Amino acid sequence: MNVTYSFKLQDSRTIEFRVTDQPVPANSAKNLPQWTRLAHCQCSNCPLRKSEHAHCPAAVAMLPVVEAFKDEDAYQRVAVTVQDERRSYQKETALEEALRSLLGLKMATSGCPVLSELKPMAVHHLPFASSDEFIMRSVSHYLLQQYFEKRSHRQPDWELKGLVERNQRLQLVNQALWQRIHSVCQGDSNLKALLNFFSMASSVSFSLESQLRKLASRIQGEAAP
User: Fold this and answer.
1) Is residue 225 part of a domain?
2) CA atoms within 13 A on the CB side of 44
3) Residue in 181, 163, 189, 22 with CA at minimum distance from that of residue 101
4) Within a domain: residue 41?
């Protein structure tokens, strides 16, 4: 996987980030800020030990983005080009929407053991995904995993209980990451992006059934029950 995000700001600055499926080893980095240390606002469900991991993998992955945009206005318009091995995407949008897309990808490929559950989806990354698209991709991907579970003679979860539980775990991580960067962001772009990402994950946990009814009406071509 090789994805490049290129931001063109209104003052003509261009900022570029490249994301691969190989995370930067968090413990190999030097002179990292305090907020990236594992012990700083560590997630309540983090399986990593402070004695073995000095820094949070997700925070280290997000660091270049946070540093680049920490003073920026979330609602400023930016022109964004996203290029992967197969195609390119272009959109003029608010900075916070573009950052939500980039930070989500960074988090999924960071090496965090909780966020790594999203890595298979990140391989087929869809920039600027809407809430409906996020639900559709999450459910479709999860059901495909359950199909392969059945083929391997294991018990599949057709009721999507595991999907809800997974997103509950992700919410705890999102909340802790928001706390991590809150103290370093003078602007609100990174915070808005994380809150936006958090709300999308929450929709899977708290309102999955209603989201599925909305999708049913579109997929079946009739009013949802």
Assistant:
1) no
2) 8
3) 189
4) yes
Tens digit of each residue's pLDDT (9 = 90 or more) over 209-219: 777 777 777 77
Per-residue pLDDT at 209:
76
pLDDT of residue 221: 63
Q: How many folded domains does the chain comprise?
A: 1
- CA–CA separation, 107 vs 57, rounded Å? 9
More confident residue, 187 or 12: 12
75 located within any domain: yes
Summarize pLDDT for 129-185 with one digit per residue, the tens. Answer: 888 888 889 999 999 999 999 999 999 999 999 998 988 888 888 888 888 887 777
Can you point out the beta strands (E) in the chain?
Answer: 2-8, 14-20, 77-83, 88-94
Structural domain range at position 160:
2-219
224 inside domain? no
Please give the structure tokens belonging to residue 204.
Answer: 């899977």
pTM of the model: 0.85
Task: Check: CB of residue 21 under 8 Å from CB of residue 123.
Answer: yes
DSSP secondary structure code for residue 128 in this structure:
T
Burial class, 42, CB count within 10 angstroms (exposed 0-12 / middle 13-18 / buried 19+): middle
- Paired tokens of 181: 């960067």
